[in-house]
Amino acid sequence: MLNLELQLPHLQVIKDGFGVVSLAFPVGEYVFLPFVTARLKHIAELDILFLRRQEPGSIATTGGDIDNRIKTPLDALRIPKVTAEIPPDAPPSLDENPFCCLLEDDVLITKLAIVTDRWLEPGDPSDVRLTIRVQVKPTTLIWDEMMKV
After folding, report:
1. What is the pLDDT of residue 21?
2. Confidence bin at 59 (pLDDT 50/70/90)
3. Tens digits of per-residue pLDDT, 74-121?
4. What is the largest CA-CA distance in the chain?
5. I want to staple 43 with a disulfide (CB 3.0 to 4.6 A). Which of 39, 69, 110, 130 is the partner?
6. Domain coverage including residue 19
């Protein structure tokens, strides 16, 4: 454990009651615990169903193009890169320590498939609903994973 802390001083090592070691990333007052990390040699593939209340074909003309509209939810799946990405008046609550998230960094997304469709339920036309299917894949076989087989 000491060697890991010396090699990676920006990370904290947390060991739970089952002896599982995970990497936690402190940002401001928060400690983030991502599921997919470069250290664990995992990547994520995302399939997104993007429901909106606009007419078919209007995704590029109303509310911004799909690239800009999907950037915010993708950013929300990762650890904030800087403290300024966290609202200053939002300290972590007791159930947000650590704060679990999907990704250490969005560069770990290697596949992104987006299907858009209409959200038929009435409501604010600027609201959207996303259903995100995530598949986590190892990129390298790690010794601990071999021992579980």
Report:
1. 53
2. low
3. 999 999 999 999 998 989 998 888 899 999 999 999 999 999 899 999
4. 57
5. 110
6. 2-148
The number of distinct structural domains making up the chain is 1
pLDDT of residue 40: 85
- pLDDT of the residue at 2: 29
- What single letter denotes the amino acid at residue 48? I
Q: Which residue type sits at 108?
A: L
| Preceding omega of 98 cis (within 30 degrees of 0) | yes
Identify residue 125 by its one-letter amino acid code.
Answer: P
Instruction: Tell me the CA distances in angstroms from 148 to 37, 39, 89, 144, one per residue in order.
Output: 19, 19, 43, 7
